[in-house]
């Protein structure tokens, strides 16, 4: 995808996510890999009103080389790119249900999203909870380094979800799946829920073409 097309895609997806209430105010940020480096949403920008010509441009080393000052969550985004060679986009939101899950004291920090439907297994996989750090703090980087080689998505404790994927579109789709699953998990909390069993999960993982 050309840099121009990627800029336009970031604006379109940002608007779509914001208008559907998936992140509020100036919360959340998007980034994507380009041939020369990265494009990211500017800090304190509203995802619903991005300007394609003012998006932040970073070189391969993450140095700000154009556009408005970048999201303060670059250490978070770059930790995914560093650990996942196939990652070409990172999406971070404060979506309500995934964030609610990130606040619960009794979720399994190694596996916060139970496999209740096939699509969360296919698109998202196991989601660990990463210990709380201040938004924008570089202290998140070693925590992501510890989990990102094996996980494309995480919940930042008491903060919100982060998803990486091989394209911006697939990162957004995975984020939407994560949010919808978190909603189902919370809707069915306290009920007797039938999870997918190990055989069903292995079958989904084997049939990676479904992804
Ligand atoms: O979600 C956010 C912080 O975690 C938003 O930060 P930015 O406005 O710097 O992108
Ligand atoms: Zn945030």
Q: What does this protein structure show overall?
A:
- This protein has a single domain (3-210), classed as 3-Layer(aba) Sandwich (L-fuculose-1-phosphate Aldolase).
- It is built from seven helices and eight strands; from the N terminus they run αββββαβααβαββαα.
- It has 211 residues and is of the alpha+beta class.
- 40% of the residues are buried.
- It is globular, with a radius of gyration of 17 Å.
- Helix 2 packs parallel to helix 5 (140-147) and helix 3 crosses helix 6 (168-187).
- The two termini are 20 Å apart.
- The longest helix has 20 residues, at 168-187.
- Strands 4-3-2-1-5-8-7-6 form an eight-stranded mixed beta sheet, with helices on both faces.
- 1,3-dihydroxyacetonephosphate is lined by residues 26-29, 41, 43-44, 71-73, 92, 135-136.
List strands and helices in order, with pairings.
Elements (H helix, E strand, L loop, with lengths): L2 H17 L9 E5 L3 E4 L15 E4 L4 E3 L7 H10 L5 E4 L3 H8 L14 H6 L5 E2 L9 H8 L5 E4 L3 E6 L2 H20 L10 H9 L5
Parallel strand pairs: 6-7
Antiparallel strand pairs: 1-2, 1-5, 2-3, 3-4, 5-8, 7-8
Bound molecules: 1,3-dihydroxyacetonephosphate (13P) and zinc ion.
Distance between the termini: 20 Å
CATH superfamily: Class II aldolase/adducin N-terminal domain
**What small ligands are held by the chains?**
1,3-dihydroxyacetonephosphate, zinc ion
CATH hierarchy: architecture: 3-Layer(aba) Sandwich
């Amino acid at each position: 995808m050309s840099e121009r097309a990627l800029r336009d895609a970031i604006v379109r997806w940002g608007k779509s996510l914001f208008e559907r209430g998936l992140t509020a105010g100036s919360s959340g940020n998007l980034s994507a890999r380009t041939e020369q480096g990265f494009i990211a949403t500017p800090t304190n920008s509203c995802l619903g009103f991005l300007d394609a010509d003012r998006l932040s441009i970073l070189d391969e080393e993450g140095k700000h080389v154009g556009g408005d000052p970048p999201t303060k969550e670059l250490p978070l985004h770059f930790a995914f790119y560093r650990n996942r060679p196939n990652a070409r986009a990172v999406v971070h939101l404060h979506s309500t249900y995934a964030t609610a899950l990130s606040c619960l004291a009794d979720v399994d920090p190694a596996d916060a999203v139970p496999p209740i439907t096939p699509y969360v297994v296919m698109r998202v996989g196991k989601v660990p909870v990463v210990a709380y750090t201040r938004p924008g703090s570089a202290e998140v980087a070693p925590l992501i380094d510890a989990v990102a080689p094996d996980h494309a998505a995480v919940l930042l404790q008491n903060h919100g979800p982060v998803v990486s994927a091989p394209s911006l579109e697939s990162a957004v789709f995975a984020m939407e799946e994560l949010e919808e699953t978190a909603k189902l998990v919370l809707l069915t909390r306290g009920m007797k829920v039938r999870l997918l069993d190990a055989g069903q999960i292995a079958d989904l993982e084997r049939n990676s073409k479904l992804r």
